[in-house]
């Protein structure tokens, strides 16, 4: 306990002095810190040592008017031109992040005009996607290998394999099988993939250094893919009774003819369900990252709140204690939210698929008195 207290005091002192040293050199652009983490980019900024940023440069793959080009993002100049753009080879530039059109995207300057080329570059989000996919494969294939080499009556596995077995069976039994019943094995591969990929992506997004730190589930493109796939599975596997309840539900005729009020509402609900999945996951994860970063940025703001150095130090030191405590709380809360959001997405997907498998209503037998 004594060593723990000393470590906490040293950490608090470090958090107190570090912002003071940074604020003496330059003002902190909070907007750039927040959007630099949330938005996608062509390089992976890690930290800054003195005046030298530590950056992982990623491959650029574009098809412009002069053909295909493959090169490293380091070939784009760090010095911006008069428009705030970063020029690069082959008349390509990375647009200013505050630009109205194509912000923070690669454009080609042709005849004084900006044209968006075909861009399939390995951006930060794509790189994080590959890393999370590899981690997910390892988390699944290692327990699968154990199952293949053991029998049912063998002792239960321990360690990581045992943890994954417990995790997988918990989601399968309590969520998928409880919702879909006998049809659970048919849809379990997709639903388990949804849960574990979202959970791994959420957890890796909390890790503040590579290979973590990517805001994958806070990117709308990722959540749209999961939502649209669930939408397609739900509607392409729906039964005839499911479609009958949409276009000709069992309601009074005046709600269906001449104005198809209820069919319109039911048809509209087909699209609102996956939309709710997409927005819920995207908004919760993006907001969590933004709040955690905002608490850290408050420290640097308070160290530059006035022209008086002593007042800055007092305000910054006091806010550092509060900010570090709130940041630690938010990080722990993010771990819980990571699990809850993955579980909610999987559970709602299972519910939507189950609702699409409506069976025909059978007449109840008459009771003989």
UniProtKB/TrEMBL annotation:
It is a multi-pass membrane protein. Residues 1-24 form the signal peptide. The chain crosses the membrane at residues 128-147, 159-181, 187-209, 216-237, 286-305, 311-332, 339-358. It is found in: Cell membrane; Membrane. GO terms for molecular function: proton-transporting ATP synthase activity, rotational mechanism. GO terms for cellular component: plasma membrane; proton-transporting ATP synthase complex. Its main location: membrane. Keywords: ATP synthesis, Cell membrane, CF(0), Hydrogen ion transport, Ion transport, Membrane, Signal, Transmembrane, Transmembrane helix, Transport. Key component of the proton channel; it plays a direct role in the translocation of protons across the membrane. Belongs to the ATPase A chain family. This is ATP synthase subunit a. It comes from Segatella hominis. The gene is atpB.
């Amino acid at each position: 306990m004594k060593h723990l207290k000393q470590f906490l005091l040293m950490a608090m002192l470090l958090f107190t002095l570090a912002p003071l040293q940074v604020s003496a050199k330059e003002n902190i652009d909070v907007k750039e810190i927040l959007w630099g983490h949330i938005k996608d980019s062509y390089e992976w900024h890690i930290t800054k040592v003195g005046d030298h940023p530590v950056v992982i440069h990623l491959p650029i793959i574009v098809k412009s008017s002069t053909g295909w080009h493959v090169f490293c993002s380091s070939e784009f100049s760090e010095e911006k031109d008069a428009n705030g753009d970063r020029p690069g080879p082959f008349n390509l530039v990375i647009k200013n992040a505050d630009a109205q059109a194509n912000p923070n995207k690669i454009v080609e300057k042709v005849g004084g005009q900006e044209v968006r080329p075909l861009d399939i570059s390995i951006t930060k989000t794509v790189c994080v996607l590959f890393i999370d996919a590899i981690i997910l494969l390892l988390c699944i294939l290692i327990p699968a290998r154990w199952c293949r080499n053991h029998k049912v009556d063998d002792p239960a596995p321990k360690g990581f394999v045992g943890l994954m077995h417990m995790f997988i069976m918990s989601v399968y039994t309590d969520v998928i099988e409880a919702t879909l019943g006998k049809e659970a094995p048919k849809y379990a591969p997709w639903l388990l993939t949804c849960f574990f990929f979202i959970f791994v992506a959420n957890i890796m997004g909390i890790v503040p250094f590579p290979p973590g730190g990517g805001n994958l589930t806070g990117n709308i493109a990722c959540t749209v893919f999961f939502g649209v796939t669930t939408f397609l599975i739900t509607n392409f596997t729906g039964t005839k009774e499911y479609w009958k309840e949409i276009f000709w539900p069992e309601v009074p005729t005046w709600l269906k003819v001449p104005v198809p009020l209820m069919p319109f509402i039911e048809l509209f609900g087909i699209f609102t369900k996956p939309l709710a999945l997409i927005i819920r996951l995207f908004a919760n994860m993006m907001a969590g990252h933004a709040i955690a970063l905002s608490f850290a940025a408050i420290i640097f703001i308070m160290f530059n709140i006035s022209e008086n150095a002593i007042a800055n130090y007092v305000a910054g030191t006091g806010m550092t204690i509060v900010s570090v405590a709130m940041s630690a709380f938010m990080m722990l809360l993010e771990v819980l939210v990571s699990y809850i959001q993955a579980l909610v997405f999987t559970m709602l997907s299972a519910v939507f698929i189950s609702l699409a498998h409506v069976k025909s209503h059978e007449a109840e037998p008459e009771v003989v008195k």
